[in-house]
Amino acid sequence: MAQAKIEGLLTQWKEKSGKLELTSDQETKIKQWFADCVEKLKQRKEGARKVIGDLKTAVDGGDDKAAEENLQKLREGLRQHDQGREKALDEFDQILKPNQRARIVLFAVSEAKAKGQSVEHLLDSILSGVAE
Fold this sequence. Notes:
Number of helices: 5
Distance between the termini: 8 Å
Structural class: mainly alpha
Strand content: under 5%
Largest sheet: none
Number of strands: 0
């Protein structure tokens, strides 16, 4: 399912971003980049669900120490998520030329605005959409 969404997104980028001109090597690398990012995002979500479950158990049991430990795990997870996002963007930057990246960003921003969506977490929303 994710592979079909990745293919669809690439097709949309090529058709609507104007003169994107991806090489076959770039397409291959972008597809792998997406697949890797989606897998990492799924793992983070699974970890967060577990910590939230553990947090609920701690709160329901009145265990302040366990609640604090789980809150710290959540905070660390957010830090790792932010670092992962930065690393993913660095990898994306290595695959595409600046003009290609700019065309994709401008297209994505215009699409988000047309839908009344925030552009702050554009990468997260794209990856979440692919991961579903």
